Amino acid sequence: MPNMLESNKSNRKGTQHLSQLPSSIENEDLRRLSRLRRSGSLYLGKYRLPYLFLFPAVAILLAFLISPIIAGILLSLQKTRLDGTTSWTGLLNYLRLFWEARFATNLQNSVVYVVGNIALSTPLAYAAAILITSKLPQVRFFRGVFLLPWIIAPVVSTVLFRSLVDPNMGPIALLLERLTGEQVVVLANAKWAMFMIIFHSFWRSFPFIMLFLAAGIATIPDEVYDAAKVDGAGSWKRFTNVTFPLTRSELGISLLTVTMWTLHDAESIYAFTQGGPGYATETLAIRLFKLSFINFDLNTGATIGVILIMISIVFMFFYLRLLRGVKEL
Questions:
Q1: Which residue, 164, 181, 198, is CA-closest to 173?
Q2: Biggest alpha carbon distance in the chain?
Q3: Which of 248, 127, 259 lies closest to 201 in space, CA to CA?
Q4: Pair 225, 204: CB distance under 8 Å
Q5: Rounded to whole angstroms, how far apart are CA atoms 316 and 323?
Q6: Across the strands, what pairs with 79?
C-alpha cells in the first residue's frame, strides 16, 4: 500500500509537472504530431514492415494497371506509317477527331446507348428485385428465370435477337408487317436498329442491377415496412420513402458497373449491326474496334480509347458523388 501511495503521488507530481509545462511547448508538440499525421510519417513508421511486404504486390498490380493506359496515351500522341516508322504528332489525332462529324455521331450514339439502357433497366430491375425478395410462392422460379439473360453469352443472345427481327421469319418483323401493311427490315432502319441494340443491352443488364437491389432490399428490416404501413403508406409510398432511399447505395454501384460495360460494349453491337445502317449505331467502342482491328489504325484507335477512359472517369465521378451523398444522409 505505501508503495502504491508513493506511486500515485509520483504520478500526480508527474501530471502536475506536465501541466506546469509552458503552453507554447505543448502546442508545438501537438503541431508536430499533427504534421506527422498529415504527412503519413507516423503511420509509415508504425506500419513500415507490413508496407514493405505489400510493396512488391502493389507495385506489380500498379504496373499491370497503369502501363497499358500510359502506352495508350503515348500511342494516341503518335503517327505510325505503313513502313513502321513513328513520329510525334501531339494532340493532332484528338483535334482531327473533334472536327469529324462522324465522331460527333459516335459520341451521340454512345450517350443514347448508355442512357437508354439505364433508363429501361432500372425500373424493371427494381420491380424484379421487389418480386424475388417478396414472400410470394414460386419466387425461386422467378429468380432463375430473371438470371437467364445474364448468363447467356452476348454473341449468342445477339444471334437470338437477330432471328426475332429477321424480315422473312422473325416474329417482331412479321408483327410490324401486320401493323404497318408493308415489310419492315428492322436492322436497315436507323431508329429501329438503335432501339434493338438498346433493348438487347437492357435485356442483358437488368438481372445484374436486380441482384444488387435485391441484396439491398433484403437488408431492410421488416419492422420498417410495418411502421410505414401503420402510418398509412401504400405500396408506392413505401417504395419512394423506404425502399428507394435505403437502396441508393446498391443502385449507384450497380449503375456504375453497367454504365462502364455499356459504354465499352463492342462485341454485341458489332454482332448485331456492325455499327450500321451507315453510322446509325456506331458507338465509340465500335469505332475503336473497327479502327484498331480492321483498319489497323492503332493511333486513332488509341485516341478514342483515351477519350473513352475520360468519359468513364466523368461517369465514375458522378456516381461517386451520388454514393457520397447517400452516406451523408
A1: 164
A2: 108
A3: 259
A4: no
A5: 10
A6: 87
Name the nearest CA neighbour of 213 among 303, 150, 274, 122: 122
Contacts of 42 (CB under 8 A, 6+ apart): 33, 36
- Is the distance from CB of 157 to CB of 203 less than 8 angstroms? yes
DSSP state of 80: E
* Residues whose CB is less than 8 angstroms from the CB of residue 221 and which lie 6 or more positions away in sequence, other chains included: none
CA distances from 198 to 173, 201, 242, 262 (A): 17, 5, 30, 9
The pLDDT tens digits of the residues spanning 146-186 come to 888 888 888 889 988 988 888 888 888 888 888 888 877 88
- Written as nine digits, the cell of 211 is 441482384
Sequence-ordered strand ranges (E) for the chain: 78-80, 86-88
- Looking from the CA of 20 toward its CB, the CA atoms found within 13 Å total 6
DSSP sequence for 227-290: HHHHTT--HHHHIIIIIHHHTHHHHHHHHHHHHHHHHT--HHHHHHTTT-STTTT--HHHHHHH
Q: Kindly report, residue by residue over 76-112, the tens digit of the pLDDT.
A: 998 888 777 888 888 999 999 999 999 999 999 999 9
The secondary structure of residue 187, as a DSSP letter, is G
**Residue among 274, 302, 289, 284 at smallest CA distance from 106:** 284
β-sheet bridge partners, residue 87: 79
Handedness of CA 237, 242, 246, 251 (dihedral sign): negative
d(CA 106, CA 305): 13
Grid cell, residue 95, equals 483535334
* CB 75 within 8 Å of CB 299: yes
- Whether the CB-CB separation of 220 and 246 falls below 8 Å is answered with yes
Burial of 83: CB neighbours in 10 Å, binned 0-12, 13-18, 19+: exposed
